[in-house]
Structure formats: structure tokens, C-alpha cells
Amino acid sequence: MATSKITFIKDIDPVNSDFTIKVKVLKLWTLNSKFNENEKYSIEMILLDEQGSLIQANVFQNLFYKFEKSLREGSVYEFTTLSVAKHNPHPKSTIFSDLPNKITFIRETELKESLNFPKNVFGLSFVDFQKINSKVIPTQRSVDVIGVVVSRTTIIPSQKKDKQRIHLELKNLDGVLLKVTLWGHFANKVSDYLDTHNTDDCVVIIVQFAKINDYRGNIGVASYYDVTTVFINTDIDEIKQFREKLAKDNESSQLSGTISLIRTKHVSLNDDFLKNNEVKTIYKSKEPVQVEEFIIVGTIIGIRQDKPWCYQSCPDCHVKAVEIPDCNEDVKLSLLKFLSQGFFF
């Protein structure tokens, strides 16, 4: 591949595919097919240029043979001849870049590795805690946050390693608190650090590419699979600058290294299911007709062998699709009204 003039990410022209970018593969992961969970559908990437700009990129399955073995997270490449189009993510997808476009590798795309890239560029763009807490930022948009750890839980265990978690509270320079949940190996990383280091000094944490959580009105952020990056008291410019501002703050003395422990009550899945939900008989569950969460207790008296062990449902909201038999319009309307209440048998 001949040496070409490098185009920065913010200067990419979507109409022209004949350009060269020099970028670091900041994050790399795969998406599986929605039809076959064991089949890879695409390679997804977050690319970072020397100016700190980010853009999402992907390689579809038909070109795995050309790029899959060459691409490595953390490596720097020059890419030439790429397709650029407007990014139209699924409503449930997470967006990792402010740019409206996304790059797709095509058959004509070429790459070569490069070694000359600044080490202190991470593409961090911090979001104010108050904007997250006040629900100003869409939950679809990933965020970068930085703050001092003021409280924590112990590791909340799970039989699956990626389901264990730790809850933290971070405080920013304005004194605003933010709830943070870290899952899997991120939880272990932070817990191990806090358990093995002297925290008399403030522990500053950055969570990059965090997912906003709005669970029953409680706002916070959480790690997002392996896409997230967590920095703990590392020697990078962003943490140095945060510490310098913290030292100059008149209230910085209140932000001591003391981290309070949040007490948690570990509840087993069995207890959570049985103790936190009302139990009803089948008869009592029919009235009144309203949306509720409860457990139905009954005895299985037989299993129909003529029905499959699955049913059709909407892939987005997971509501069961029910075929209405031939009947008059009044019956259909009554049945639809009944089904809209969430009663499916």
C-alpha cells in the first residue's frame, strides 16, 4: 500500500471512499448472529486517531477471511479505501462516538501496521455527573466519567464470573455523586485495588464507555461488557489534571481517602423470587384485570404433546404473538383488549 496523505477522522468526507486514516484500534469485539448465537455476524471496533477523535467501524462476515487475523485491539494501522455511511444503530444498541457516520470495511480496503502513535491519547470525553443524574443524556449514548471513590460495596458474588459486581459512588469536583456498577473482571480489578492499596490518598477512577442505567428510576452508570475501560489512579494526563484541580479546590480536604463501605444484603435467586413477589392461586390471578407482578402456584396435571416448546414473540419487546381465530369483530376487539393487559396463557 503506497503512502498516502493521512485524513483525520473529523475530516472524513462520506461521499469519498478514497482516503487514508491512521488510527489505533481502541476497542475490538464481535457480534453474533441473531439467528445463530454460535455464528459471528460482524467485527466491531472503536477507532481513535492522533487528535483524540473516535469513530465506530465494522467488518461483516463475508470479509472475515481478509481482516479477522490482521486486526488486534491496541494496534495502530493505516487504513485505505473505506466505506462511510450514516450510522443508524438499533434502538437498543449503544453509541460510542459523537460522529453521525460509521466506517465499514470493503473488499478494496487495505491496511498496514504503524508504530508511530502518541501514547497519551485515549479519546476521553468526560460527562458531568449532574447531566447523567438529571436524565439529560440518552441512555443509548455511552459516557466517560471521572471521580473520587467515596463509598463501595464488597464484591457481590454470582455463580457466573461475568455476573459478579461491585457498586461504587464517585464524587466529582463539584461534589455531585454518581452511582457506578462494575461487572465481572472490572469488579475484581477495582475490588483488588481497594483491598490491597493504601487509600489514605484519594482513589481517582475513570470509567470509559460506560452504559447509563435507569433502573426503576435510579440513575447510574455501569460497565458495558468488555468494551468498557477502567483506569484506577493511573499516571495519565486526565487523572493528573483531576488531582491538580482537586488539590486547588477549597473543599478538597473533605475528599479524604476514607471510603465508606456500603452494606449489602445478598439475596439468593430463590429468595428473591419467593420473598419479593406476591403469591396467588390461578383463580385469584384472574381478578381484577390489571398489570401486576406475582407468582402463580399450581399443579401440573398434564403436558400437551401437540404443542411445541416455544412460541412466537416480538424480538424487541418479547411480547407473545397470538393468532386470533376466525370470529366476529366484537370478539376480536375484546380479545385484543384483554391481551394488551399482559395476560398470556
TrEMBL record:
UniProt domain Replication protein A 70 kDa DNA-binding subunit B/D first OB fold: residue ranges: 7-113
InterPro entries found in the cross-reference section: NA-bd_OB-fold (IPR012340), RFA1B/D_OB_1st (IPR003871)
A Pfam family annotated for this UniProt entry: DUF223
CDD domains named among the record's database cross-references: RPA1_DBD_A_like, RPA1_DBD_B_like
Designated name of the protein: Replication protein A 70 kDa DNA-binding subunit B/D first OB fold domain-containing protein
Organism of this sequence: Lactuca sativa (Garden lettuce)
